Amino acid sequence: MSEIKVIIRTADQTRKAEVVLDSSNTGADVIQASVDNWSLPVDTDYSLVSTNSGKTLAPTSTLSSAEIKDGDILEVQPVLVAG
Taxonomically, which superkingdom (predicted)? Predict the structure, then answer.
C-alpha cells in the first residue's frame, strides 16, 4: 500500500503531529495510536474527522477509502454524550 503524510491533532489543538501513515490504516488505528502516544483519557470515545472535507471517518474505513490525501488534517475529537 502507499503512504500518506498527514497532520493529526486533537480537537483543542493542544497536540499536533505530522506523521506518515499507510493508506490501509483504519480510523480506529489512528485514534488508538493518538490515545496511546498522547496519553489521552482511555475512558472517552473518540471520532476521527477530516478537517479538509468535514467528514467523520468510520472506525473501520481505511484512509484510502476515505480519500485522505497528503497534507490533510485529521482531528481526534472526543464523542460527547449528553445526559
Answer: Bacteria
Distance (Å, whole) CA 45 – CA 12? 15
3-class SS at 12? coil
Range of the domain at 46: 3-78
Of 60, 68, 71, 66, the C-alpha closest to 29 is 60
- CB neighbours (10 Å) of residue 18? 11
- 4 to 16, 33, 42, 71: CA distances (angstroms): 16, 16, 27, 8
pLDDT-derived band of residue 81, with 50, 70 and 90 as boundaries?
confident
Q: What is the mean pLDDT of residues 6-12?
A: 97
Domain-located, residue 26: yes
Residue 21 lies in a domain: yes
pTM of the model: 0.92
Q: Identify any residues that bridge with 80 across adjacent strands, giving them in sequence order.
A: none
CA atoms within 13 A on the CB side of 72: 23
